[in-house]
Design brief:
Oligomer: single chain
Number of helices: 8
Largest sheet: 5 strands, mixed
Strand content: 25-35%
Structural class: alpha+beta
Radius of gyration: 54 Å
Subcellular location: Cell inner membrane
Distance between the termini: 101 Å
Organism: Sphingomonas aurea
Domain GspL cytoplasmic actin-ATPase-like: 44-178
Family: Belongs to the GSP L family.
Number of strands: 17
Helix content: 25-40%
Pfam families: GspL_C, T2SSL
Strand order of the largest sheet: 3-2-1-4-8
Length: 365
């Protein structure tokens, strides 16, 4: 529903009683009319009296509202005796096929009085339209109609209050077609739905109230909760997949470890059991293989030395019985083993049959 609320003719008088008329329009046309405050809950479009607003048409820049308004102010200043500070200028949309755009010039004081009067009546109109702009733009000549109890005239590039002498002077014999009943109601309904020129611009623009849409907030909260639940479910699925994969890997590791243990051994702790078997196989310390390999490498590096006996103890020590051509070579062999990173204990070497024999005990340093 949209209601056209007609302001009384003449400039606002704070001391005079407020005489408002209104017409209510819907999808089927005009639904009701009356006087006083309009019904609550409707879109209200206020209508400024034609005698208080001067209308011009000019080809203005269309790139932005600010540029069009600045150009319109210059034109209004040239055509008005009042200073620009006392005037309010508003720019509308041009008609189809015409580059000219309507310009409304009204006193700033009148705008303040109108809005104050409407606010006192509990009305905050979505738009404030000059009365002549309620009529359609004629292809030729002029339209005449009575809206809100006041006669108005609309031409292609003009709009004013219908006064006998002024009308005859401006129309200059051009045809003036009256608009009544159905055509007028259709024109008023179209103007109420989409005003061509709105005086509520600039300093008088309608302030938007910040309203909290609780339905939207609840809907967003539901969507947010659903997203959190889905994300949580995805995380749970991933954790379950990771747990199953870890169990699979552990089972494979246990099966692989079982192949390294003696056949028939009960599998309790694969890591510990493999460590125990490794110690049993390679021996304590650095192990039999590592220690023996390092010892024989040192013996090969000292010519004239040989091993006559070898023994690996359960403490990880390697006992070597060696024979050398002379005693100095035994000392050289001991130094070579120590250089390889071992701790070496030497027994007393004895000379027998032209050979020097003795025992070296090699252990982890």
């Amino acid at each position: 529903m949209t209601t056209l609320l007609f302001l009384p003719p003449g400039l606002p008088d704070p001391d005079a009683p407020v005489g408002l008329r209104w017409m209510r329009f819907g999808d089927t046309g005009m639904l009701a009319r009356g006087e006083g405050t309009p019904p609550e809950g409707d879109r209200v479009v206020a209508v400024a009296p034609a005698d208080a607003v001067t209308l011009h048409w000019a080809d203005l820049p269309g790139r932005s509202v600010a540029q069009a308004t600045a150009a319109a102010r210059i034109l209004a200043a040239e055509a008005s005796a009042a200073t620009t500070g006392e005037l309010h200028v508003a720019v509308g949309e041009g008609g189809a096929g015409s580059p000219d755009r309507p310009i409304a010039v009204v006193g700033a004081a009148a705008m303040r009085e109108w809005l104050a009067m409407l606010a006192a009546a509990g009305v905050d109109p979505i738009a404030l339209v000059p009365a002549p702009m309620l009529l359609p733009q004629p292809d030729e000549g002029y339209y005449r109609a009575t809206v809100g109890g006041v006669g108005v005239i609309r031409g292609r590039t003009s709009g004013f209050a219908d006064e006998a002498q002024l009308t005859e002077l401006v129309t200059a014999g051009a045809p003036v077609k009256p608009l009544v009943r159905d055509p007028l109601e259709r024109a008023l309904a179209a103007a109420a739905a989409a005003p061509v020129l709105d005086l509520r611009q600039g300093a008088f623009a309608r302030r938007r109230k910040l309203a909290i849409d609780w339905r939207l907030i609840r809907r967003l909260a539901m969507y947010g909760g659903a997203i959190l639940l889905v994300s949580f479910a995805i995380s749970l699925v991933r954790l379950a997949k990771y747990d199953v994969a870890a169990d699979t890997v552990n089972a494979r590791a246990d099966a692989l470890a079982a192949t390294g243990l003696p056949r028939g051994e009960t599998l309790t702790d694969p890591d510990r059991q493999l460590d125990e078997r490794g110690r049993r196989v390679i021996g304590p310390g650095l192990g039999f293989t590592t220690t023996t390999a390092a010892a024989f490498a040192a013996i090969r590096s000292v010519p004239g030395t040989e091993v006559t006996a070898i023994d690996f103890t359960d403490t990880g020590e390697l006992r070597l019985t060696v024979a050398t051509e002379r005693e100095a070579l035994a000392t050289d062999l001991k130094n070579a083993l120590e250089a390889a990173g071992f701790r070496v204990r030497a027994s007393v070497f004895q000379s027998n049959g032209g050979r020097v024999t003795g025992e070296l005990t090699v252990s982890r340093r």
